[in-house]
């Protein structure tokens, strides 16, 4: 769960007590989007960055910057992370290299 305090809380929903496993800190502004897969969780923030977090160690293992405004949505498709935001662009990121491999422009409104 991400929030206004720029913190992400990781919950163990398989435990009947719904135990909080820990907090992920690294964004400087509030977290707007989360998506998980392949042992990672990706977070998008108002600080215009995307961070990759390892769910075992609860450590940040990478950061992606390229949006000029807040990141609003994330979707994982195979080895590609799609991000959209207030800058009207969808960016495509390779999850291993953390490099932007494409941009889908032409939108006239924010991408949610």
UniProtKB/TrEMBL annotation:
User: What's a Pfam family in this record?
Assistant: WD40
Q: Its GO CC terms?
A: transferase complex
The WD repeat boundaries are 24-63, 64-103
**Per UniProt, which keywords does this protein have?**
Repeat, WD repeat
SUPFAM superfamilies in the cross-refs = WD40 repeat-like (SSF50978)
Q: Which InterPro entries match?
A: WD40/YVTN_repeat-like_dom_sf, WD40_repeat_CS, WD40_repeat_dom_sf, WD40_rpt
**Alphabetized PANTHER family for the sequence:** WD REPEAT DOMAIN 5B, WD40 REPEAT PROTEIN
In Swiss-Prot or TrEMBL terms, this protein is called Uncharacterized protein
